[in-house]
Amino acid sequence: MDAREWESLCDGCGKCCLNKLIDDDTDELYYTNAACKLLDRDACHCRHYSERFTFVPGCTAINMDNIASLTWLPDSCAYIRLFQGRDLPSWHPLLTGSKEAMHAAGMSVRGKAVCETKVRYLEDHIVLWPLKDAD
């Protein structure tokens, strides 16, 4: 699979751009609704994708070499689904031709996320909806 094909697998949900917390005692992962400052929370894409590491040095590139170690990606993520031997969900943009079915299924951050720069305490923004894995 070449880089273009790999990138096309991304459904553009924006969940990977949400801040996450890990409990120091239990190692349990918690998602928040606080999104990276670069995320366009309506269109659900990075405003500066090609230069994102300049703006957010801690941003993670998702690739075939590191997918197994990215345990913080949600089960709905196409990369994770394919890594686990599962099919793309019926709402995936590669199957539907647009992101609208994904948004309609509630699988994106659209209308649910806030910008991290507006958040004082991440602990106050823990949410469960990013864990939803429809289809």
UniProtKB/TrEMBL annotation:
Superkingdom of this protein's organism: Bacteria
| A UniProt-annotated Pfam family | CxxCxxCC
Q: Which residues cross the membrane?
A: none
Q: What is this protein called?
A: YcgN family cysteine cluster protein
Per the UniProt record, the source organism is Shewanella jiangmenensis
